[in-house]
């Protein structure tokens, strides 16, 4: 996956409806770029009242009229260290940070489209939760293994069944999680303490 190195500014509380980092081919024959896209998917042909989802389910992304063109031609990767989910506890929602147990970066599968404003926007694919992720939520982002990154980004690979055969998620045992501060509930908070485990007790 040849790509020019780029220095990324750490972010610890990435909210929907903001710019996020992605890796993609801006067109079929363009080289890979790492750039910023809007986290919110609304294709250029949709009207202003059309939905702007931040996620697309693996069960429907290849067949939905809204997503299938992007699934075939405009796939991307979103780098992340992990993600947050909220677990109901005693009438409240306790945030948890989910990540690889080895703390290596995660590559999340996404799709993108040019938005009505001419700028790219994306949605991250989700799948039924697996392994320890099921303890927190019934869905999780689609995190790809290393062998799947190049085929996922290949704009000339458009057949749905072929994509499914060559693209695979990380094993369930890859992941772990822990409770974190409720400060993450405020998008304005963005510092490394947000992903630190809460003290025991």
UniProtKB/TrEMBL annotation:
GO MF term list: lyase activity; peptidase activity; single-stranded DNA binding
GO terms for biological process, alphabetical: protein-DNA covalent cross-linking repair; proteolysis
Segments of this protein annotated with the region Disordered: 182-201
Gene3D superfamilies linked to this entry: SOS response associated peptidase-like
Pfam families reported in the protein's UniProt record: SRAP (PF02586)
Keywords on record: Covalent protein-DNA linkage, DNA damage, DNA-binding, Hydrolase, Lyase, Protease
UniProt family annotation: Belongs to the SOS response-associated peptidase family.
PANTHER family (alphabetical): ABASIC SITE PROCESSING PROTEIN HMCES, DC12-RELATED
Protein name: Abasic site processing protein
UniProt organism field: Onishia taeanensis
Lineage of producing organism: Bacteria, Pseudomonadati, Pseudomonadota, Gammaproteobacteria, Oceanospirillales
